[in-house]
Design brief:
This protein has 255 residues and is α/β, with parallel strands linked by helices. It has 13 helices and eight strands.
């Protein structure tokens, strides 16, 4: 089975840099995959792609040595298993709030006896081999999102689930549920305290913590604190910001 490079990074005590895809395009996925990320996540929750396009994007990412991952739209076993059968090496599951929800999520990612994933690795059987199932439980990454008040309060129960590799903090939703204010500004001291508490709990349970950082400087700060899976921006935001920068520079130069 293809080595999971992100697990190797974590084993060295380092942080993996994760790209994030919202644009429904295999070409943009391939383009982003060539920019130096350690892993790239196809976002089925807030991205614009459907399942068929997502599978094509996973194929495009797999043309590089970047680890292909996916965030599912919800904690739905069928969708989780389908994305794994399409070649995702890791699944991020949103809005996990209880131990039971996390057990259902992790179980869908693991073949028996560790879980209840159905054995039908359609694409991995071709690109990895018939022995895919022998190593899949050890290679596939499971990240449960902590992004609500309830999820935060139940974080220790969630993190104690066997087979969970880590938690991923959705700062936007966590800030919204804690303060009632929308936005991705991580400077809020309340949010910052929660980030420290989540990291401390993850260390206690022997799993990694990741997050969607508010920007490059914030991402660097979080890595230095101990977060080991960091996403910054999305392909949509990167494209929009780069385009705006060019337009503004041109307008400023001719006005």
């Amino acid at each position: 089975m293809r080595e999971n490079r992100v697990r190797g990074i974590w084993a060295e005590g380092k942080a993996a840099l994760n790209g994030w895809l919202h644009i429904p395009s295999a070409w943009s996925a391939e383009l982003i995959a060539h920019q130096g990320w350690d892993s790239i996540t196809v976002d089925m929750q807030h991205g614009m792609m459907g399942m068929e396009t997502a599978i094509q994007m996973l194929q495009a990412i797999s043309s590089t040595d970047v680890l292909p991952m996916a965030r599912v739209n919800w904690n739905t076993p069928g969708d989780i298993m389908k994305l794994l059968d399409a070649g995702a090496y890791g699944i991020i599951c949103p809005m996990i709030e209880t131990r039971e929800e996390c057990e259902a999520f992790v179980g869908a990612c693991r073949f028996p006896p560790a879980g209840y994933r159905s054995h039908g690795p359609t694409r991995p059987r071709i690109i990895v081999g018939e022995d895919y199932a022998d190593d899949a439980n050890q290679q596939v990454i499971t990240l449960a999102m902590i992004e609500t008040v309830k999820g935060f309060e139940n974080r220790d129960e969630i993190m104690s689930v066997a087979g969970l590799d880590g938690v991923f903090v959705g700062i936007g939703d966590l800030r919204l549920t804690m303060t009632g204010a929308a936005g991705f500004d991580a400077a809020d001291p309340t949010v910052d305290e929660l980030l420290n508490a989540i990291l401390a709990s993850a260390r206690q349970h022997g799993i990694i913590a990741g997050l969607f950082a508010a920007g490059a400087d914030h991402g660097i700060e979080m890595i230095r604190r101990g977060y080991q899976f960091v996403s910054i921006g999305t392909d949509t935001v990167i494209l929009a910001n780069a385009s705006a920068t060019l337009v503004n520079a041109l307008r400023a130069g001719v006005n």
